[in-house]
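Can you give me the bound-state structure? Components:
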Amino acid sequence: MSQPGFTVDVDHNQYLPDGGRDVSAIATVVSDGAPAAGAVADNGGSAEIIIVDCSGSMDVPHSKIAQARAATAAAVDVVRDGVHFAVIAGTSFARPVYPPDGTMAVASPQARAEARQAVNGLRAGGGTAIGKWLQLASQVLRTSPATLRHAILLTDGRNQHETPAELATAISMCNGFFTCDCRGVGTDWEVSELRKISSALLGSVDIVPDPAGLAADFEAMMRNAMSKQVADVALRVWTPQQAEVRFVKQVAPTVEDLTARRVTSSAQLGDYPTGAWGPGESRDYHVGIRVQAGSVGQEMLAARISLVVNSQVLGQGLVRATWTDDEALSTRINSRVAHYTGQAELASAIQEGLEARKQGDEETATARLGRAVVLAKESGNEDTAKLLAKVVDVVDEATGTVRLKKKVDDADEMALDTRSTKTVRVRKEHV
Amino acid sequence: MSGGYPAGEGFAEGDPLPLADAAPGGGVSPGLEARPPAQATLGTGGHMDGRSTEDVECSSCGALVGVWDRYCENCGTDLAPPVDSAGTPGYLTECPVCSADPEAPQGGITADGYCEVCGHKMPSDRDHVPVNLGVLAGLSDRGQRHARNEDAMALAISRSREKPPVAIAVVCDGVSTSPRPDEASLCAARAAVRVLLTGARMEDDPEQTSRAAVAAAFAALEQVAGPDGAPACTYASAVVDADSVTVCWLGDSRVYWLAAAADAAQPAVAPDATTRPVGAAQEWPVSKCLTKDDSLAAELVATGLLSEEEAMASPQAHVITQWLGADFPDYHPHVQRIGLSGPGAVLLCTDGLWNYRPEAGDLAALALPAGLTSPLDAATQLVKIANDEGGRDNITAVLVPFPPSTP
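Here's the bound-state model for the whole set.
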């Protein structure tokens, strides 16, 4: 079984002034290999679960449950032969739909036909307790030996039949066991609730305002899952003894703060989970380290960043620090570090602004969303700028003077919220 | 690496052979001495105890080889290989920073030269590397301000029974704004010196060999280019034979002729080297810089816009217009064969030296006459002056006493 390798390309200004201690670097990690259409992954096998909300609200309007059935069938059709899969229905309980005994089916034309038939029998009726859905998914996945484990979760409403603590417990049980992409159909669900799940389970979250859009979205998610080849990839960060890791964030394709997710092996070594990777996949990480100051002319290794799968190191990059008295060198700002710092601030400015608006704090909302407008313009993030323009009236783009719109479509506000973390990528310049 | 060199003429029994002195701090690398022939009766080629007096032992396998042999017939080792400034592997086994603190926990050193505990980069075995081949010698030094020595040099000698030796030197200065400049300079110097040595041994035209050598260096840099970009360096090579030097360069590393004659301190109005036919030995009492920098500063001076002093002080002073690197495939190396008449020495150096002493006359006054017989001492002295005055850059100097002869 061959493991693909990773290349780690570190970009930063390695020069610190005399007494300087903070090193900031962007690490671009690329998984080897070109995406091969229809190739059978040479790995421990994949297992896929589709979790469908069958609460009563899914019948209001009826198109929600009807489209959910169609979307699930569409996703099942994309599952490759030999891959394990299952479908679960969720209400205030969770029950296996296919296979009905709570195990996993091996995909084949026959199995897919049987699954489609079972899915056709899905009906809406009952409450919503998402934690229970996650727990059942976890149990079902355990019946398979597959190593690449992934779920698609669809809901239309709030987690009314569970406490936040119960949901949190369920999430932490599933943490690291499988990845999960979450979708909310319509506008009656809570973005922050689903984000808790997608963030912890290293997946995406998005709104599908019109049920008719579900099939295409599910199909895309399943295709993406089929392209993964390596599971449980960790970003390992080594630092010298008296150094401190201030933060580790994924900054492309989306912002995700991994700092608190550190699994510490020793004072100098920590692993950050990054989920599953497909060939040719590329993600950028922003790492901040505080080191002991060295003397001018000295060079120190501030961090060694590697990608680890099953205790095997598959790629490495070095973050160096060199102390200099040449101001021209130490005051250079690495453009990618600056760009991604701005993108991360953009994501938090949007989320804080939207939260303030919900709480009725118009002053804060105006300030934060105004700041977001400036950052979106500066970084060329046109997609986010368009979404912002549906929530605020932009008076002056350069200074961030905005006015909150009186009437904002719920779908627009939720789209801005879910997509606030999507970043614009910046390529490295070659001097 | 280098072994002992075969004994040349002029050696009495028991004299130490000129050995490649590539270890930091001097001293002979153990196990690399070649032994002098038993009872060396010079030039007669007689036989004693069943061994030709012209036989020595191969430094690699110990088999007997003729003193003029280039390759060991037994194991194939090159008996007079080039020596470069890469220093010795396995240089340090513990971290000097951590060892200084008795309370600090001790850890190992990673394969790429960092302390596992404190993260400090180990002083490189490239920081200060003297190379003494007798016929020529050089010193490459990190200087006072840079974290790494991104200069590299490679030296070699082509010996033959009938003719005087041919001295070969390559000096490269890594471009700091390119990725892995230290890798660039060492790679380029190593690739080039090999081609120059083979060409000299085959008695090929040195101008052609010089072109082939710089092309080989370029090809080597294409190999090391990666997703982080193209490592790049300057390039200067010199092939010195009994009556000429063939110079090849790209960038702002320089080759000088240092004259030992009485009025060597006079600034040159020397005959143009291109108009003099090769092989016609002319009197060359004046020291001169044989190369013209590929730099913006040099262009400004050439067009008369700035004086040399003004140009050197300007921000353009170190912007080079040509370099060796995969990102610059359309390079045009300068190649020139220049007839020489001694006594004197050929000096190759990087800008870490000539920034402090740009005038050929000044360099000649400092390096000669000591450099005529002890080129390593003279090179060391030049490097010391640059360091004493600030050592703002890496400093490399190679001296070839002219005409080349085995000391």
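A couple of observations. Residues 45 and 52 of chain B are 7 Å apart (CA to CA). Chain B touches chain A at residues 105, 110, 112, 114-115, 117-121, 144-148, 177-178, 227-230, 327 (CB under 8 Å).
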